[in-house]
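Quick one: structure for this chain?
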Amino acid sequence: MKNNSVRNLTISAMLIGLGILIPMVMPKIMIPPASFTLASHVPVFIAMFFSPLVAVAVVLGTTLGFFISTTPIIALRAFSHIIFAVIGAKYLQAHPEIVLKNGKFTLANGRFQVFNLVIGIIHAVAEMLVVSAFYFMGNMPDSFYSQGYLYTIFVLMGVGGLIHSLVDFNIAYFVAGALYKQFNLPIFEKAVKQTKELNKITA
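Got it. Here's what it folds into:
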């Protein structure tokens, strides 16, 4: 039990570090007045393949890092990730089988992609609410107001945020799929175990 706690703490620390580092080094897609950093959500998504506790720790750790190094709105957008991280991690705990298709990893996994879409919608809506609060308080750059609420919040933060989430979760899923046979990823291990048990029943 103690070894497992130390392991989770170590994994959380590594993912937090990556979560803070990635926005500094990865390319950004600029759609004024917004920008989207490729893979910026990947550490949180990977944490969801471990446990809800690891996912929460990574969200809180990256949020603290952003509060220290960036603006409050970016930090609060990061904090809003706790909503999809907890929901997603708990769902994966209850339904680990969705990460495999016919017992194998593939990006062409319909069940996982539906899950990805639902998480993406939750993710985008939570960030829209944070940005909307700042927007109506008048704390956004002038460029946000010149484009109007519908475009900046619904189109950029909503649709753009959803696409960003879908891409990043697929990156995280691909990384996890490449690692799970060599590295202990609890959700994938549960999925493999369930597949083996099902094969024994149907054999």
